[in-house]
Amino acid sequence: MNKIILNTIFISCLIFAACKKKQPPSNPEVPVNLLKVNEQRVLYYDKYPSTTAALSQVNLLPQITGAITGIFFKEGSHVEKGQKLYEIDKRIYQAAYDQAVANLKVSQGTLVQSQQDADRYEYLNKYNAVAKQLYDHAIITLENAKNTVKALEQAVRTAKTNLNYAVVYAPFTGTIGFSMVKLGDVVNPGATILTTISTDNPMAVDFIINEKNLPFFERLQINKQNNVDSLFTILMPDNSLYPYTGKISVIDRAVDSQTGSIKVRLVFANPQGFLRVGMSCVVRVHNQDTQPQLVLPSKAVVEQMGEYFVFVAKDSVINNPQAKSDTGKRKNVLIVAQKKVQIGQTIGPNQVIKSGINAGDRIVTDGVQSLHDGSQITTANKVAPGGGGKRGQ
C-alpha cells in the first residue's frame, strides 16, 4: 500500500515538472521585420469607374407610313453622313407629288388667263367701256388665282417632302446598330424605331467624382496648358491600357444633393473604333502631387473598424528580476506602439501614408497579426515574407 502511494506521488511530481517546463515565458518577444520609413516621390493614379458614351446618339424614326422596300447598310458598321440607309415604298408619295405638280400647272394656267382678263377689263374701265361689276369680278378672280397658285405650290412642297422621307439617310457619321425592321415591314411615323446610330470618334467617357474633388477637376479644365503626360488615361475592360489620352470636355451643371457627387465627361480619340458605347472601364487621373510622401508595404497597415493602424517600434528598458547583478537587472528591449494613420493612394503592393507617422520611424512590416500595443518584439529571428507573425522555417 505504501509503495502504491509513493509511486503516485512520484508520478505527480513528474507531471508537475513537465507542465512547468512547457509554460511559455511571461513576456515572450514576437519576431518581426522592421522597415525604416523614408519620404520618396511616388507616381500613382486616382482611379474612377467609368462608362463610355457617344457624343451624339439618335434613334431613327420614319416620317411617313409605308412598307420597307430597301435596306442599304451592314449592321454594326461605320456609316457616313448622308449615306442611304432605308427606302420606304414611295409609289403612293410619288403619285401624290405628280398630282400636286399637275394641279399647280393647271392653276398657273388659270392665273395667266385671269391676269389677261384683268388687264383687259382694266383698260376698258379707264374709258368706261365696261360695266364696273365685270371689272371688279375680274380683279377678284385674279387674286383668287394667285392665292390658288400659292396653295398648290405649298402642296407640291409638302408632297416633295413626303417623297423625300421615303428614303432615310444617316444624319451624321458614326456607327449604326441592328436594324429593328426587315424588308416588307410596315412602319409608322413616331411609333417605329428603324435603328440607332451614334458617333464613334471621338468618344465620351463619363465618371462620377465626389464634390470635394470638384475644385481639382475645375482647375484641370481651366488649365489648358497642362503639360503632364498621360493626365487622363483609361483601362479597358480587360485591364489593358487604352493607347490614347483624353481631356476634360464637360463637368455637369449641378451636384447631386442626395449623394454629393457630380459627373465629369472626358473625350478620347477613337480612330480604330476600340471604344464602344456603354463599355465599362476605369479612368486614371495622373497624380499631380510632386512632393515626397511616406510609403509603406500594404501588409504593414492594419484595418480595424474602418480605421487604419501601424505598429511603430520604440526602444525601452525593463527590469529583469532574474539577473544576478544589479547592472543586469535593467534590460534594453524593443516594444511597439500602435499608431493611427490616414492612408492615401494604393500603389501596387504599397500604401501611401498621409499622416500619423514620421520619416525615420521604424515600422513593423511582418508579424503584425501577433502584436498589440506594448508588445515586445525582436528582429533576431527574421519573419518570412507573409509569415503573419510566425518564425521563418
Structure described in brief:
With 393 residues, this protein is of the alpha+beta class. It has three domains: 26-43 and 291-378, conserved putative lor/sdh protein from methanococcus maripaludis s2 fold; 47-55 and 201-286, Elongation Factor Tu (Ef-tu), domain 3, CATH 2.40.30.170; 90-165, Helix Hairpins, CATH 1.10.287.470. The protein has helices at 2-22, 91-126, 132-164, 214-222; strands spanning 30-31, 33-36, 39-40, 45-53, 57-60, 66-71, 78-79, 84-88, 167-169, 174-176, 186-187, 195-198, 203-210, 232-235, 246-251, 261-268, 280-286, 293-297, 302-304, 307-319, 330-347, 350-355, 362-366, 376-378.
Structural overview:
This protein is of the alpha+beta class and 393 residues long. The protein has three domains: 26-43 and 291-378, Beta Barrel (conserved putative lor/sdh protein from methanococcus maripaludis s2 fold); 47-55 and 201-286, Beta Barrel (Elongation Factor Tu (Ef-tu), domain 3); 90-165, Helix Hairpins. Helices cover 25% and strands 34% of the residues. The protein has four helices and 24 strands. It has helices at 2-22, 91-126, 132-164, 214-222, and strands spanning 30-31, 33-36, 39-40, 45-53, 57-60, 66-71, 78-79, 84-88, 167-169, 174-176, 186-187, 195-198, 203-210, 232-235, 246-251, 261-268, 280-286, 293-297, 302-304, 307-319, 330-347, 350-355, 362-366, 376-378. The strands form five sheets. Strands 1, 3, 18, 19, 20, 21, 22 and 24 form an eight-stranded mixed beta sheet that branches. It has a six-stranded antiparallel beta sheet with strand order 14-17-4-13-16-15, covered by helices on one side. Strands 5-12-10-7 form a four-stranded antiparallel beta sheet, with no helix packed on it. β21 and β22 (350-355) form a beta hairpin. α2 (91-126) runs antiparallel to α3 (132-164). The longest helix is centred in the first third of the chain and has 36 residues, at 91-126. The radius of gyration is 44 Å and the shape is rod-shaped. 21% of the residues are buried. The model is unreliable at 387-393 (pLDDT under 50).
